[in-house]
Write a structure and sequence with these properties.
Mean pLDDT: 74
Low-confidence stretches: none
Oligomer: single chain
Radius of gyration: 12 Å
Helix content: over 70%
Distance between the termini: 42 Å
Order of helices and strands: H
Number of strands: 0
Largest sheet: none
Shape: rod-shaped
Number of helices: 1
Structural class: mainly alpha
């Protein structure tokens, strides 16, 4: 049984982390 929350946070969490990294890079 696949956890739908984990399935959603997988790619979405990765994109969020990437966007956060780019935002921090732009600020610094």
């Amino acid at each position: 049984m696949v956890n739908p929350l984990a399935a959603v946070l997988g790619p979405v969490g990765g994109l969020a982390a990437c966007a956060c990294c780019l935002l921090l890079a732009a600020i610094w």
